[in-house]
Amino acid sequence: MSCCPKCTGNQSPRSRFVTFLLSLLIFCGFGGVHRIYAGKVITGIIQFCTVGGFVIWQVIDMMLIVLGCFEDKEGKTI
User: Fold this and answer.
1) 20: which residues sit within 8 A by CB, 6+ positions away?
2) How many structural domains does the chain have?
3) Is residue 9, in this structure, part of any structural domain at all?
4) Can you give the pLDDT at residue 63?
5) CA separation for the pair 36, 34 (Å, rounded)
């Protein structure tokens, strides 16, 4: 599991910018929407029901997205 998209060569067709914008919806009370977009539906619903995992999980995901380390359901880097 590499955190470098250039090293993996396994880039997701999903947009990192869109994923980040969706992760910002935590401030509107919609945590987890970015995970649903990435294909991680179950964890997205859990995050939604727990308000982004009590915001902590959401903030960690936001950092991973910004760093280019967030992966979609297939394990491809977004």
Assistant:
1) 34, 62, 65, 66
2) 1
3) no
4) 96
5) 5
Within a domain: 12: no
Supply the range of the domain harboring residue 57: 17-67
Is residue 29 domain-resident? yes
Ranked by mean pLDDT, the top range of 30-34, 48-52, 61-65 is: 61-65
Q: Which residues pair with 77 in a beta bridge?
A: 11, 71
Task: Annotate 45-62 with b (16+ C-beta within 10 A) or e (fewer).
Answer: eebbeeebbeeebbeebb
In sequence order, which residues have a C-beta less than 8 Å from that of residue 72 and are 6 or more positions away?
A: 12, 14, 38, 39, 40, 78
Cβ neighbors of 38 (< 8 A, separation 6 or more) are 12, 14, 19, 44, 70, 71, 72, 73, 78
